[in-house]
Write the C-alpha cells for this entry.
Amino acid sequence: MPLSRVLRFFNFLANDIGIDLGTVNTLIWVKGEGIVLAEPSIVAVDVETEKIVAIGSEAWEMVGRTPDYIKTIRPLKDGVIADFDITEQMLRTLIKRVIKSRFLVKPRVVISVPSGITEVERRAVADSAENAGAREVYLINEPMAAAIGIGVPIEEPRGNMIIDIGGGTSEIAVISLSGIVSSATIRIAGDEMNEAIISYMKRKYNLLIGEQTAESIKLKIGSAFEDDDELSMDVKGRDLVEGLPKVVRVTSSEIREALEEPISAIMQAIRGALEQTPPELAADIVDRGIIMTGGGSLLRGLDKRISVETGLPTFVADDPLTCVVKGTGMILSNFPKYYQILQREKVAS
C-alpha cells in the first residue's frame, strides 16, 4: 500500500483535537465535530484521599461551598500551569470525554498558550497533554489562534491588531505575514477584575463576597465606560463587622470605579504594543481597526473605551469566547497550510 494511503488511513483512525486551555474555561474542538466541550478549568479534590471529586461545571458549583476535606483548585493561574499533576488529570479526563473508544490512535493536539509564557511553562503544557494521551502536541500563541479563528488573513503583508482578554492574561498582538510583529502580555484580565470587585466591596461596605458573586456583578453591571444606562443590583455577602449575612445595593458606576485599576493596566499595555508597531503596520491598523476576543472583551463599554483612548476603531469579534478554540480547529483542518507557524512555536525537546 502506498505511504500516502497508509497515512490517510492512520489519520482516519485518529481524531485531531484543538484545546483552548484557559485559566477560567477549557474548550475543546474535535475534528469532524467542532466544539464539543466547554468547561470551567477547575477541579475539586478530596484532601484526605487526594482523589479528584469533580471536574469542570460540577466543581465550579462547589466553589465556596465545600467541607474542610474537599478543596477546589484552579490548576492554571495567569494562563499557565500552577499545578502540573492536577492539570494533567483534568486534561486526561476532558480528553476522554470527547474521544470515543472507536478511535484507535492517539490524537494530534494543538493547544493555545499565552504568547508571553516562558519556555519552561510551554514545556509544562506540552508534557501535560502528552501524558494525558496526545500523540503529537503543537502549541500556538493565543492571539494567532484567535486571528485564525475569526478569519483574519494573517498571511498577508498587512497589520492586524488582536486583543485577547481572557481570565488570567490579556494579550495584545500585531500580526503580519503569519507572524507576531509586536506584542504585549500582562497577567491582568478577568480574574483580576473579580478580585478588584471583591476588594472594593470589602473596602466600601465591609462586605465579604466570593468569586462567583464577583463574577456575577461584573457580568450584570460591570462597565469600562460611562454611559446613560446606569444599572444596579443587590449583592449578598457576609458583614465583616457583625459576621452576619448582609445585602447591599451597588451601582454600575461603583463597579466601574472598582475596575479602574485593572482596566487602566490593560490600556497601558495596548498603548505599549502600539508604540512598538512599525509605522506601515500602524497605518494598516488605522484602516482595519482593533479586533477584541476573549471573555473579557464582553465587559460593557470596554471596546468604546479602547476606541476613545487610542483613536482607533475597535470591534468585538462574533462569539469572542470561542475564537481561540475555533482557530486551533481551523489549523488542524488545514494542517499543511499552518504547519510552518506551528514549527516556529515548537517546544524544544
Notes: The domain at 190-260 is CATH 3.90.640.10 (Actin; Chain A, domain 4). The chain has 13 helices and 18 strands.
